[in-house]
């Protein structure tokens, strides 16, 4: 594994090489300062105390010592920073692993909503069917009630006579004496009227039975509808919990990724600043060493001149040769499912006031659930202009679904979805419509295209 400070290690190695070269050049000068025995003896013999020029300038020495002290401090800080960087990278790795787990959990939870969303959509479709049947039954009941009322109105005038005939038939016929022909004709009329009344009464009984049956059927349908509404509420709550859990997991993943990226950027910035300062200090130390080397070489030249002059003076005063100086040795170390339950209002390519339709538009029930039309990742999930909540889903291979007009969304940007997963719901009031548009690249295509 590459050291996280490998880039700086190169700078450090090259700087160390320059320092070693500089130090080898001023070794003699350092030995003079450290009091090497042989060299000190030479100084004693030749009166080094009488030559203050051999002492190096204190400013260069102080600058070198300050640079070395600062380098030591920076090396320690660099070690601390390396530990912090290692800890930060370990934390980032843990955060990345957690983010991956959250993304995977979000995907699993989103996929788990497929079944629940399908069940909820089946319930919604059944509710629509029952509502439609109840509407038809109620219309039929109104017609039967209207016919029943019309029959009752038609019988109203003759009911008193029919009632009197049923109670007092002889008195009713003999109220006023009439000729025999008129009496017979009246009896025939009464007979026909009786038949008509009987037929109308039978019709009334039939309509009344139909009305009773319709009321019973409507009561049963109403009971079924209430049961379905209760089931729908339960399914919606369960689906909302699943979808919210998936969305929360995705949001945690996004937050962890942003935090890890920010932390890594901060650590990398501090590391760059430390490397830059350390490189500056190494350059300062190298410059100080070079200055000391030049001063040491100058001091060495002056010393040799003085020694040569002293040796010549001694040669002139004595005949014995001067003892040779001991050698100086240097040593060092190197270092497929339906989108929504609804009715198609306009299909792709149909003529509209704005031109050919670029997608499908569905009329849905208020609060109807919406499902993912394909497997893919969420690129946009937010309100957009007058389209309400909008969802853009990348299905791969250049295809993207655009869903507009939703009332609420329970997915987040970056979330991976399975086909048929719950993505949101239509507005809870009014007459909502869902726009479904499929795009390939920048062009809309028929949403019925098989992906």
Say how many strands there are: 13
Strand content: 5-15%
Helical percentage: 55-70%
Secondary structure tally, helices: 7
Shape: rod-shaped
Q: Write the element-wise H/E pattern from the N-terminal end onward.
A: HHHHHHHEEEEEEEEEEEEE
**What would you call the structural class?**
alpha+beta
Number of domains: 2
Counting copies of identical and different chains, the oligomeric state is single chain
- Uncertain parts: 1-56, 318-336
What characterizes the major β-sheet? 8 strands, antiparallel
The mean pLDDT is: 75
Whole-angstrom Rg: 52 Å
What is the terminal-to-terminal distance? Answer: 44 Å
Describe this structure in words.
The protein has 451 residues and is α+β, with helices and mostly antiparallel strands. It folds into two domains: 319 residues, no CATH class; 104 residues, Glucose Permease (Domain IIA) (Distorted Sandwich). Helix content is 64%, strand content 13%. It has seven helices and 13 strands. The strands form three sheets. Strands 1, 4, 6, 7, 8, 10, 12 and 13 form an eight-stranded antiparallel sheet that branches. A hairpin with a 2-residue loop joins strand 7 and strand 8. Helix 1 packs parallel to helix 7. The longest helix has 138 residues.
């Amino acid at each position: 594994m590459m050291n996280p400070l490998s880039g700086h290690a190169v700078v450090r190695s090259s700087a160390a090489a320059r320092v070693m070269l500089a130090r080898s050049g001023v070794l003699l000068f350092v030995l003079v300062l450290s009091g090497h025995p042989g060299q000190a003896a030479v100084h004693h013999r030749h009166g080094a105390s009488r030559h203050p020029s051999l002492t190096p300038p204190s400013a260069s020495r102080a600058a070198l010592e300050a640079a070395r002290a600062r380098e030591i401090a920076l090396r320690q800080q660099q070690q601390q920073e390396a530990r912090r960087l290692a800890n930060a990278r370990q934390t980032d790795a843990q955060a990345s692993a957690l983010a991956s787990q959250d993304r995977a959990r979000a995907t699993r939870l989103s996929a788990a909503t497929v079944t629940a969303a399908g069940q909820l959509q089946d319930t919604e479709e059944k509710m629509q069917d029952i509502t439609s049947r109840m509407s038809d039954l109620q219309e039929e009941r109104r017609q039967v009630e209207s016919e029943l009322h019309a029959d009752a109105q038609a019988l109203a005038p003759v009911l008193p006579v029919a009632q009197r005939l049923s109670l007092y038939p002889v008195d009713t016929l003999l109220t006023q004496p009439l000729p025999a022909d008129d009496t017979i004709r009246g009896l025939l009329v009464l007979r026909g009227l009786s038949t008509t009344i009987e037929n109308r009464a039978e019709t009334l009984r039939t309509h009344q039975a139909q009305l009773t049956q319709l009321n019973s059927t409507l009561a049963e349908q109403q009971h079924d509808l209430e049961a379905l509404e209760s089931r729908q509420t339960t399914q919606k709550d369960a689906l909302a919990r699943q979808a919210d859990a998936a969305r929360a997991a995705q949001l945690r993943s996004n937050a962890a990724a942003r935090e890890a990226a920010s932390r890594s950027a901060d650590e990398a910035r501090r590391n760059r600043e430390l490397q830059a300062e350390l490189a500056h200090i190494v350059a300062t130390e190298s410059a100080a060493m070079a200055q000391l080397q030049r001063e040491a070489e100058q001091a060495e030249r002056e010393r040799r001149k003085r020694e040569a002059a002293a040796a010549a003076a001694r040669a002139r005063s004595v005949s014995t040769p001067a003892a040779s100086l001991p050698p100086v040795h240097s040593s060092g170390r190197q270092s497929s499912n339906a989108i929504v339950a609804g009715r198609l209002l306009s299909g792709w390519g149909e003529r509209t006031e704005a031109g050919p339709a670029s997608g499908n538009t569905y009329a849905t029930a208020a609060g109807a659930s919406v499902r993912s039309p394909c497997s893919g990742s969420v690129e946009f999930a937010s309100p957009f202009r007058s389209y309400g909540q909008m969802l853009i889903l990348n299905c791969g291979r250049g295809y993207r679904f655009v869903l507009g007009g939703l009332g609420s969304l329970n997915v987040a940007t970056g979330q991976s979805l399975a086909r048929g997963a719950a993505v949101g719901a239509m507005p809870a009031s009014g007459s909502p419509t869902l726009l479904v548009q499929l795009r390939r690249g920048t062009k809309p295509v028929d949403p019925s295209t098989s992906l």
